[in-house]
Amino acid sequence: MEKPPFPGPTPQKQAVNAKHMKNLKKKEEQKMTNGMREMEQKQKQKRKHTEKAKHSGQTHAKDPALLQQCLGPGCVYPTRPGSKYCSDDCGMKLAADRINEILPQRIQQWQMSPCIADEHGKKMLERIIREQKETHKHLKDMECHFHELEAIILRGKQQAVCEDEESNQSDRGQKDLQIFCVSCGQAISIRIALHHMERCFVKYERQSSFGSLYPTCIEGTTRLFCDVYNPQSKSYCKRLQVLCPEHSRDPKVSNDEVCGCPLVHNVFEFTGNFCRLPKRLCNSHYCWEKLRRAEVDLERLRALHKLEELLEQERKVRTAMTNRAGLLALMLHQTIQHDPLTADLRSKEDS
Questions:
Q1: What is the mean pLDDT of residues 91-104?
Q2: What are the distances in angstroms from CA 82 to CA 1, 10, 46, 61, 94?
Q3: Are β-strands 262-265 and 211-212 bridged in parallel, bridged antiparallel, or unpaired?
Q4: Is 188 helix (H, G, I), strand (E, B) or coil?
Q5: Which residue ranges have biased composition labelled Basic and acidic residues (predicted)?
Q6: Which of 40, 45, 267, 303 is the most exposed place for a label (fewest CB within 10 A)?
């Protein structure tokens, strides 16, 4: 008879792999069970600690022998749980006794030696008050200049229109010259450059908005901020009223309206004469009224901002001076005077 063939190695390998997989599964199950046991032990320890704390608090509350005596002056009662006193009155009495005992000595030490910080604070207050007076004076001058500018604009509008042939000829000679716009970069004629640049700037300026939740309320000032309420953003416009491109438009110029710009000599010297060209034909003084008003309003705004900064500095210096000799500072801090014959504790550099 023929012997059956020996089985190949493949069934043995499959059996080994199955045993290996079983061992891996057993190891993973053991790890999971060990992790769960550790978690349960930690939770049990936490519960034991909380129960011990509760039990100790209850035993302290039940057993008055374990409680400490109240630190209040003359008090013999036990303390409350988690406190050094039996009541709030005992704590207030002890604090009052400490203040009455320590504070007079600290005040006497404070008065014996001069405070360098107070001297510096007084000098800073003098400087701040002097700057405030100068800023108030400058603000009044700018308000006067504001009314003077309005009077000059009114006088210029009352001038008679007179077309100057020489200026028209010079404008005709400049028709071929070109310049690039600073906003859009387009090449434009130099004759209409100011018109184009102003319109281009307004177009880009409209894309951004400046607002606040509250309207402006400043005493003694006229025509400063726009303050138009926007219901969508629920804010008030905080641009200058003269330069606001969103809520103010330039009025239409009539044919018989005069330019009225005051003429100057050497840039700053006012000659007393006015430009009497028609406003629609004058290219040299385009939007001069708006720019002059904006210059004055911007200077007034800077003065107001400086006043606000000076007031904030004054408040900080005064609060520092009042807190320096206060009850809490005297109780917590102390200056040690090693030489009783020397009253001034400043160094040579400070003095």
A1: 89
A2: 98, 75, 21, 11, 18
A3: unpaired
A4: strand
A5: 26-43
A6: 267
C-alpha 68/C-alpha 85 separation (Å) is 9
Dist CA 114 CA 117 (whole Å): 9
Length, in residues, of the chain: 351
What's the token pair of residue 144? Answer: 């006067």
Are the beta carbons of 85 and 292 closer than 8 angstroms?
A: no
Eight-state DSSP code of residue 264: E
Task: Check if the beta carbon of residue 260 is closer than 8 Å to that of residue 274.
Answer: yes
User: Residue 194: its pLDDT value, please?
Assistant: 80
Statement: the pTM of the whole predicted model exceeds 0.85: no
What is the rounded CA–CA span in Å between residue 38 and residue 45?
A: 11
The residues, any chain, with a CB within 8 Å of residue 168's CB and separated by 6 or more, are: 281
Close Cβ partners of 94 (under 8 Å, ≥ 6 residues apart) = 71, 72, 73, 85
**CA–CA separation, 100 vs 93, rounded Å?**
11
Assigned token pair, 8: 């190949």
Residues 248-275, mean pLDDT to the nearest whole number: 80
